[in-house]
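Hi Q.,

Before the meeting this afternoon, I wanted you to have the copper (II) ion prediction in hand. No need to reply - just skim if you have a minute. The sequence and ligand are here:
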Amino acid sequence: MSRCAKCCVADVIYACDFETLYSAGPLLASEFDWSIFIMAITQEAVLSVPDISCEHCVKTINGALGALSGIESVNTDIPTRTVQLRYDPAQVSMEQIEATLDDEGYSVAK
Ligand SMILES: [Cu+2]
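Predicted structure with the ligand bound:
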């Protein structure tokens, strides 16, 4: 599903609940909870990576994905062999994420 830029902006405004913010009166940028904004512009994904087996894998994956710009958070889990991540699709694509994992020797199960 691809959405136009206007839809994305509208989504962010809606998700940040700017209506409530405006009715609450002036607010300094330092007082605004920017995590809401980050949650609104980023996407969450859970990737199944069957080759995750140990702490070394966790370090490698977290390091490689964490180095990409647009990756907000990475959480690699050994028991479930999954990589949970939050990323900004405007900065990094799922193709780039999968290619990075591939370069490290991990393929994503479909
Ligand atoms: Cu390992």
